[in-house]
């Protein structure tokens, strides 16, 4: 079976590493000459709107999937004429746009921060008056890793901010006094079977995920699964979805969904019986889903900008390096380490060891 | 770091799957147009003696390693002029030839079946008179998976057999009444650090490995490690080596070594903290070695000729598919499954499930 992937970054790379042992081959559509998934499959180097190359991809592969949600809607619609596409155009349409996403949460009874659609500075002023400060103004589309958003704390922050974010459609979200950030990675098969990984505690810095720790019997696991199942069923979703929540007052408020394998699920490569990457491929290919049970206690630490010396990372017991083969760039995710340990105490000690490498 | 691999079969494929997350790139030299490692790196399609392509490979990579031991000595010698080669030409020279191999065992005080060098039918007749029957006549080089050998039980089997095996240099080995076959996979770094995986029980059928089960505290582990360490040190070996033994009278008799990652170590991908493939690459690259400790209880079953339906293999809990992406061929190793279970009882039940798929 040959899988087409829109995007050829580290998520595509890890999909190929997981799918090759299943007998799958890969083709990546990515305009970047140095797309880091390229060594693991065919690289169609073209823009995401290039219909000649999209048609070529559709002709070559059995199905198409995505490694990022900002794919143009036209790309998905065009491909869907010729080849099965998972997740669906509708799932991508919702997940790509913060307004549609938040509206879906509200419609399904999933708690989410107060929000308002912002199409002008006047809209913003009115929404701030209603929702209050602090609040966060985010572009409705194309934001990631803290990009395309601004925290508003004072009236001064509000003035002129719509233009500052490019005068594009935005969403204002009320600030929630969260005690933690968690994500649930779920997978749903073509037949509707759904499985959930354990909730993951996430720590961000400057909007970029730094540390994910798989939880042990988290008290909000069942609640999170209930919320995520509502979205998966509503969208008749196929594949892996990650759902980010704020922990607020012992409950959960929905932040956002990612209709794809997700950074907070990278620990599953070593830390779960079947990784999010293999499970995504099983789902889209119509294969039985794999177990989402943990193997030991696991955490994931991102390498941002550069990977520490390979000899130092590999010298740490219980540590598994994932180098994305990318060049150094400030703020870029260039690799991660998974720690898989026999107990939480060991895990905490190992996290400190890897953090020292990153800091040093 | 770019690694050159002589041979582009499933061992090269699994080396690349293990090395890519370490940030390594791969180039495979293999004359086969459909070399199954090719999708994971650069494919130099040329004969093993093609000096132009060997020179190109040497220029492109940081070091060269092998996925099979029958590489011509000239190839190794040629490459060694330009680029580091691990394991060394001397290790390959020994491992490639059953006479040199058995002589090394004898010189190092490692018990091994009686053997005699056979260069003619007269040599064979004399050796049979001395060693007795049953015995096994094997070509000194190029044998694998039961090819290039013949079991001799009667005087009739002996007559004309030297010519039957091609009138090439052979070794006659006395038959040992073994109760089991085990292998020890070891890894030795450039600095001499050595680690051993648990002993593996192997079951062959028609000379081809069918089932490997990682042992639990095998009583002969320490003895096997002692024997293997002697060979590794004598050869100043760098990389993974597999050492096959017969279990005889509660002791071990050396059968043969493979100077490379080995089929009986495939279970380590899921079943050990660090797989034989990653550890081989760590060793040859001069990185710290990874832990050889088990994760759960594991076994490996080979798929010979064809891989069962992917949907059926993936439906079995605790089962991890490794499809080599090869075409069907009688007697060809085309894939394997690793079972990683919480205890030996579960493992035995799961082995039976996979065996049913293979049989059916």
Topology:
Two copies of one chain form a homodimer.
Chain A (H helix, E strand, L loop, with lengths): L1 E5 L3 H10 L5 E5 L12 E3 L6 H10 L2 E4 L6 H8 L8 H8 L1 H10 L7 E4 L2 H11 L3 E5 L9 E4 L2 H4 L2 H4 L5 E5 L5 E9 L5 E3 L3 E6 L2 E7 L6 H14 L4 E10 L2 E8 L9 H4 L4 H9 L12 E8 L5 H4 L5 E5 L9 E9 L2 H16 L1
Parallel strand pairs in A: 1-2, 1-4, 2-3
Antiparallel strand pairs in A: 5-8, 6-7, 6-8, 9-10, 9-11, 9-13, 11-12, 12-15, 13-14, 15-17, 16-17
Helix pairs in contact in A: 1-11, 4-5
Instruction: Give me the oligomer status.
Output: homodimer
Helix content of chain A: 25-40%
Please name the two chains that share the biggest interface, counting residues whose Cβ lies under 8 Å from a Cβ on the partner chain: A-B, 33 and 33 residues
Largest sheet of chain A: 9 strands, antiparallel
CATH architecture tag of the largest domain in chain A: 2-Layer Sandwich
How many beta-strand runs of chain A?
A: 17
Mind telling me the CATH class of the largest domain in chain A? Answer: Alpha Beta
Cα-atom Rg of chain A, whole angstroms? 20 Å
| Head-to-tail CA distance between termini of chain A | 44 Å
How many helical stretches of chain A?
13
What name is given to the CATH topology of the largest domain in chain A? D-amino Acid Aminotransferase, Chain A, domain 1
Task: Please trace the helix and strand order of chain A, writing H or E for each element.
Answer: EHEEHEHHHEHEEHHEEEEEHEEHHEHEEH
Unreliable runs of chain A, pLDDT <50, ≥5 residues? none
InterPro entries (chains A, B): ATP-grasp, ATP-grasp_carboxylate-amine, ATP_grasp_subdomain_1, PreATP-grasp_dom_sf, PurK, PurK_C, PurT/PurK_preATP-grasp, Rudment_hybrid_motif
Keywords (chains A, B): ATP-binding, Ligase, Nucleotide-binding, Purine biosynthesis
GO molecular function (chains A, B): 5-(carboxyamino)imidazole ribonucleotide synthase activity; ATP binding; metal ion binding; phosphoribosylaminoimidazole carboxylase activity
Pfam family, one (chains A, B): RS_preATP-grasp-like
